[in-house]
Amino acid sequence: MENQEERAAEEQASAAPERGLLHVWRSVGCSHQLYPERVLLSTPVQQVSLGEHHGLLLAQGGQVFSFGELSWKGLSIPVSAPVLEVSLRGKNVVRVAAGGFHCGAIIDQGNAYMWGENTAGQCGGSATNITVSEPSPVSVVDTEVVPPVSVRVVDLACGREHSLAV
């Protein structure tokens, strides 16, 4: 009997539509939210990534939203009201990554964009100890060939003070 119930539950779960609903649960100070709370967004969410005190949402249609402590913008945005990364509007973002205090995105053409704190060069480029306040293109170049050639980025990961592109 248990197997039939388990199978029915599995079938029901697999038949449930994937709608891109966002839920959050967290500990804030002495307040603990033990059960997931749904966050209402106008667009279904396809991917999420969390940094130290911030996060990114990749919504259907390639839009990117940020929330949390966005120190590079001087903002603190609640998860219930994420802000659109306007400078990425019109670009079809296919992947996002949040690091310690920085962010990254890949658009469908394989170009990478980085923004946030850049104290260790984690946002790319040669200048460090600066803040990159808006998503900026980063060139990923294969220097092993002559002449050097730009490469298509297919995946991106961000750590505390470093970023990796595949």
From TrEMBL:
Molecular function as annotated in GO: guanyl-nucleotide exchange factor activity; small GTPase binding
Any one annotated GO CC term: centrosome
Start-end of each RCC repeat: 62-109, 110-166
Ranges in coiled-coil conformation: none
Record Pfam families: RCC1 (PF00415)
GO biological process terms, semicolon-separated: endosomal transport
Protein name per Swiss-Prot or TrEMBL: Amyotrophic lateral sclerosis 2 (Juvenile)
Taxonomy of the source species: Eukaryota, Metazoa, Chordata, Craniata, Vertebrata
Name of the gene: ALS2
